[in-house]
Amino acid sequence: MGMARLVLWRVLAVVPIMLVVSFVTFVLLSTNPVDPAEQLLGPTASEEQLEAKRHELGLDEPVLVRYADWLGGAVTGDLGQSIYTTTPVATSIGDRAGVTLSLTVGGLIVALVIGFPAGVSSAMRAGRPADRLTMVAATAGQAVPAFWLGTLLLLVFAVRWSIFNAVFYVPPSDSVTGWLKSIVLPCIALGASGAAWIARQTRSELVTVLQQDYIRTALAKGASRHQVLFGHALRNAGGPLLTVVALLVSAVLSASFVIEAVFALPGLGSLALESINRNDPAPVLGFVVCVVFVVVIVNVLLDLIQGWLNPKVRAL
Amino acid sequence: MWGQHRRGGPARGACLAAAVAVTLALGCSGDDTTSDESPAQASTLRIADFTDVTTFDPVLAQNTQAAYLYPVYDTLVRQSTEHELIPHLATAWVQPDPTTLRFTLRDDVVFHDGSTFDASVVKANLERAKAVEGNPNAVTFAAISEVMVLDPVTVEVRFSTPNPTFLVEMSLVQGMMVSRDATAGKTDLTREPHGSGGWIWNQAESQDGVRQVFDRNPDYWAPELQGVERMEISVVADNEARYNALVTGQVDMEFGATPADVDRAADDDLNVLTLDVDVHFLLITDRGGALAPPLADPRVRRAIGHAIDRDAYVAAILDGVGSPSGGLVPPALTEWYDESLVEVPRFDPDLARALLAEAGYPDGFELTMPTLPLLQTSSEAVAQMLRDVGIRVRLAALQPGQLGPEMRRGSFAATFTEAVQYHPNQLLSTFLAGHGPYNPFGLADTRQIDEELATAAGADQATAKALYADVQRQAIDGGMMIPVAFAPVVVLARVPVDDAVIPLGARSALPYRVRRDDR
């Protein structure tokens, strides 16, 4: 399969995934026993008023008709609006996406910056005390939930020492220092587990690769350890590591929704939580669709990169 | 003593000198957050609220969202620090008869959109509040039969039946006045407030679901009420995050703190303002036994009352903050509180078991009660107390927003719930009246209660107080409403709260006279 065909197939595969996800979510939300009309009109509303409000909201239409209406709008970027605030869902998601993006990218950077060198260093010292110590730390890192670590960091570095912000998000456009103070702790909390994961995977892949004959041959021919590591070993260990990083995007993204609550950051997670508590279906659906879309796109990109790096993958 | 409680604590320590490099890079704000603030920042009051504002339309808003509306809207009357009703937009009021209220109004009030306030605006507001569908406080306006403009500063409100809660409700969101254009539907009040309040909504700096910003109204008619130049109210849904925001000085005030926060707030040198108005109670709606036949027997319902250990509830669930309740009217409603109800009903599990046995249920019975995430812990506690006398309670978890509708539909025989109270008629009429929304089984056992509530509504204060006390006794003795505890509404602050007021009926403090000091 050529690269162009791979791109086409992978991109086309996104469509049915999004249709299934959006439809299932839509149906699940429509089975919510809470009546939005009753929520809006309160306890004194008559049955006639409730019926009129349900009609106004289109709730008296069959689920399939309502889904088709929503889908028609969604393909043009209209994800509906909040029944309480009337704010378009696309606007709410756009307003909150910057926070979630900062957290996810920041968490990934922390994971990579700590995890990758630690894994390489550990692999180069396999079996030695430094390797064992790193792997113990990695095990502990994987076991620590992000929200717990976040709370701990917050209590020490924000409440006790006042170095970072305890709550709130400062956009980088307002203040870069303020932005850093608001996202450093959440990003460390988010990235710690990922760093541990990457360290273990990097070490595992590298140790396997470093035992291959061609590595021994390269060393025998006089290549330096540095040349062997970066010229041969890491290149061959890169494929599986790329998969780990792609999986990490999903993990960090979902963990960020919890971390948002700990640090009172107004990201997509808090939007979803507020909407769920308020029984506001459109923002919840918009949230699910957007998050799934990002995760699917990341995986598609991973497939494409794998296919580009390794032609054999294209045939699979 | 009863009423609103205020507490303070010792001075705070200094910032620790650790992590110098990072501190130098990012700047240590330390514990004294005002030290590097500009004068403008120093006069900004930053508040963390537990909820978001879904609408700026007072007719569609609930009192839980009042914190966002008070800065921009004036109410007809206001509550003092002692919760007396004092003049605000209305300078005086008289009640010529039980179904008429006549307000004299200020003549110097200008809305933020430039229009003026007068009696015709009050008339338009009250008529709109009665007409708009979806008003969560529709009951406030339901009995209004006519609003008459007597002259530009005098308006008369006539009711079809006496409305004893109307005046106090005019100090809550129900009493907030919007401008003439807004009442005419020329603006979208949902997303844009049009009031005359001490602060003007700053649309450019506000963000839905995140933060609402208000700047001081330079032309306000009562500048002495404006303690700060600017107010920022941020949504912080998580209790712990709100507390952290306050402790670290990122906000100056926190609304929606829990009783558990009160003790640690003293250790952290925070000022505390509490008001015990949140009534926790068991409502038994199925007194005919349609869903739970044992509840048809009054002895079983009385047994439930005697099974509740109110002291243990206050100690365990409310962290000792609040008070065990005998009656249904909290002490904070000083005018209406009746101490003779304190001992009703007493905790006596042996008596509860004996009553159950006498009623033919020596082995108890099964009972399903609804609960919400917010009520989960307290519901579990009450359920365990009932289990101890043999009533095997199963809790059915509902979603937020589902409890009220399910109660009104009659899906459950009994419900443990809570309600913030500002007038005895409000709670008793809502949950006990035969024609009220919480009589889903259409029972006729509230006839005497209905009559007494109707009489109390138009009676003088002393007579009304005696009638409300009698209604409470009937409700408790008859096992209709079983009081558990009075929980506090808690506001924590780094700023002085001596002049701050948590109005009866709200879960936040009024913005008036709250000032930043240089801590």
Structure description:
The complex is a heterodimer of chains A (316) and B (519). Helices cover 79% and strands 0% of the residues of chain A. Chain A has 13 helices and no strands. Chain A has helices at 3-30, 36-41, 47-57, 63-74, 89-124, 129-143, 146-160, 176-210, 213-220, 225-263, 268-278, 281-309, 311-314. Chain A is globular. Chain B is α+β, with helices and mostly antiparallel strands. Chain B has two domains: 5-29 and 39-270, Periplasmic binding protein-like II (D-Maltodextrin-Binding Protein, domain 2); 277-487, Dipeptide-binding Protein, domain 3. Helices cover 28% and strands 22% of the residues of chain B. In chain B, strands 1, 2, 9, 10, 11, 12, 13, 14, 17 and 18 form a ten-stranded mixed β-sheet that branches. In chain B, helix 15 packs parallel to helix 17 (461-477). The longest helix of chain B is centred in the C-terminal third of the chain and has 17 residues, at 461-477. The relative contact order of chain B is 0.16. At the A-B interface, helix 2, helix 5, helix 7, helix 8 and helix 10 of A face helix 1, helix 5, helix 8 and helix 14 of B.
Q: Residue ranges of chain B: pLDDT <50 for 5 or more in a row?
A: 9-41
Distance between the termini of chain A: 9 Å
Structural class of chain B: alpha+beta
User: Into how many domains do the coordinates of chain B divide?
Assistant: 2
CATH H-level name of the largest domain in chain B... which superfamily? Periplasmic binding protein-like II
Oligomer: heterodimer
The CATH topology of the largest domain in chain B, please? D-Maltodextrin-Binding Protein, domain 2
Our measurement of the CA-to-CA distance between the termini of chain B, rounded to an integer number of angstroms, reads 29 Å
CATH architecture descriptor of the largest domain in chain B:
3-Layer(aba) Sandwich
Q: What amount of the residues of chain A lies in strands?
A: under 5%
Shape of chain A: globular
DSSP E strands of chain B, number: 18
- Taking pLDDT < 50 over at least 5 consecutive residues as the criterion, the unreliable ranges of chain A are none
Shape of chain B: globular
